[in-house]
Amino acid sequence: MMEIASYAKPYLASLQPYVPGEQPQGGDWIKLNTNELPYAPPATVREAIAGEAARLHRYPEPLSGRLREALAERFCLETGNVIIGNGSDDLLNLLVRAFGGRGRRTAETFPSYSLYPVLTGIDGGEMVSFPLGPAFELPEEAVSASGADLLFLTSPNAPSGIRFANEALRRIARSIKGIVVIDEAYVEFASGSALSLLETEANIVITRTFSKAYGLAGLRVGYALASSPVIATLDRIRDSYNVNRLSQAGALAALAAGDWYVDKVTEIRNRRDRVRATLTGFGWKVFPSESNFLLMAPARKGFPAGAEAAASLEGWLRERRVLVRRFSANPLTAPYLRVTVGTQEEMDTFLKEADEWNQRV
Ligand SMILES: Cc1ncc(COP(=O)(O)O)c(C=O)c1O
Fold this sequence. Notes:
The protein has 12 helices and 13 strands. It is of the alpha/beta class and 361 residues long. It has 2 domains: 2-31 and 259-359, Aspartate Aminotransferase, domain 1; 43-257, 3-Layer(aba) Sandwich (Aspartate Aminotransferase, domain 2). The strands form 3 sheets. A 7-stranded mixed sheet has the order 2-8-7-6-5-3-4, with helices on both faces. Helix 7 (166-175) links the parallel strand 5 (150-154) and strand 6 (179-183). The N and C termini lie far apart (54 Å). The structure holds pyridoxal-5'-phosphate. Residues 35, 87-89, 113, 154, 158, 183, 185, 209, 211, 217, 222 line the site of pyridoxal-5'-phosphate (PLP).
């Protein structure tokens, strides 16, 4: 049986697949590890999805046209500037297939979303990674000189939560003769976006998702905004029915329920800032975040910040049924833990347990 695997493209044997965050199904975990919204969707969204169930014997609308129109209207763009994906992951994949991958120069900054190199590898390409600075600053000069055909920038960055300045993004877009993807998966939690750059920079693609601020991670809907030739190229290679009926209906209803989401996002942003203040009060380094998570370097007396302290707190929290995300594979990220901002009750428990770890001698 083993030999059958060798029928595959040879480079796939050494491909490191993407490792999603832990997704325990059920149990009494406080789940603060994959940056989801801690609230179930409003009734109107659930009803819209349930309403589509009666039409599941019919194929979905192939272009996701109504959703494209609704998004185009929201951002004062044309429908030709919008494409919908099965999660933004689907669109990142299309971007690699169209503009990066094999025989192309595909670049990213590190750390960022660890799916980019995997998608590049699947296409037989190699990712060039430019490390962010020690405080996760954008290495503007190196990236500008990268000669990338396709460059991925995550802003607000994951896992730091820091958003890159539009002027730096514009300079980068003008320096490289390739596509610059600005992954704005967390932008609704930020104080601004790169949207205005689309007016002047035809090589910028903004990807966004309904998985985070819209709390629809389980539905799988994302979108990209870009100049019409870029969107047309992506449309040419996507699966014809890449977004199912339930997802199109749910995302449309979520857009219509805007006020509900604005309240929730405001709540999360305020809570994020309060939690950061408490953690900083522990004496920990915590980056200012424009997302729905915080990156922190735990430390206590006799236990300085570092990979061991991060592992210790993660284990301590896990024993108490609180899940956070650790990035142990790289020295740049090993001292840190990332915690998603959950409900007030969840954050109270997290802070209580973290404080107990902090007080130990
Ligand atoms: C930076 C970033 N981009 C994209 C995604 C994927 O989002 P989606 O659920 O829309 O595929 C994630 C999910 O964690 C992310 O962190």
